[in-house]
Amino acid sequence: MNEIGLDPGIIWLTFFILSIFVGIEVISKVSTVLHTPLMSGTNAIHGIILVGSILVTGHSDSVGVTIVGTIAIIMAAANLVGGFVVTDRMLQMFSRKKPKKQVEEKAEKQVEQKIEQQVEQMAGKDSTKEMPAIKEEDA
């Protein structure tokens, strides 16, 4: 018990629950443009947490601390890797796509190649036969 008359565990639990609510409120107010820079900063923090949990677990003398430290290492590593995956996906959203002009030029080249193939086929056959029509799917 402390000066207030409350158990320290209850005080820490109250801080933990309040921090969850504050975190949810803060994160829900962030605009989508800021998510990528914030994720990068969070990844750096999780890297520090991972190193700290490795150091604490490595110097522990009791089994309980070792178990909790191992769980902390696993969770920090998963959070770190997941953060990098999410950051990579977000950065892919901002990458430039091929302009329509390049796509149209590629389609025109494919049509020209098909026509040339058909002309070559016709040159090898009897020239009195008609040239086969190009399907709309190929165009």
Can you walk through the features of this model?
The chain has a domain at 31-93. It is 73% helix and 0% strand. It has four helices and no strands. It has helices spanning 8-28, 35-58, 63-93, 100-124. Helix 2 packs antiparallel against helix 3. The chain is elongated. It starts with 7 loop residues before the first helix and ends in a 15-residue tail after the last helix.
| Portion in strands | under 5%
Q: Detail the poorly predicted runs.
A: none
**CA-to-CA gap between the ends?**
82 Å
Give the number of DSSP strands: 0
Number of helices: 4
Query: How large, in whole angstroms, is the Cα Rg?
Result: 31 Å
Shape: elongated
Overall average residue pLDDT: 80
Please outline the major beta sheet. none
Helix/strand order: HHHH
Question: How much helical structure, as a percent, in the residues?
Answer: over 70%
Structural class: mainly alpha
Notable traits:
139 residues
Summarize the structure.
The chain is mainly α and 139 residues long.
Summarize the topology.
Elements (H helix, E strand, L loop, with lengths): L7 H21 L6 H24 L4 H31 L6 H25 L15
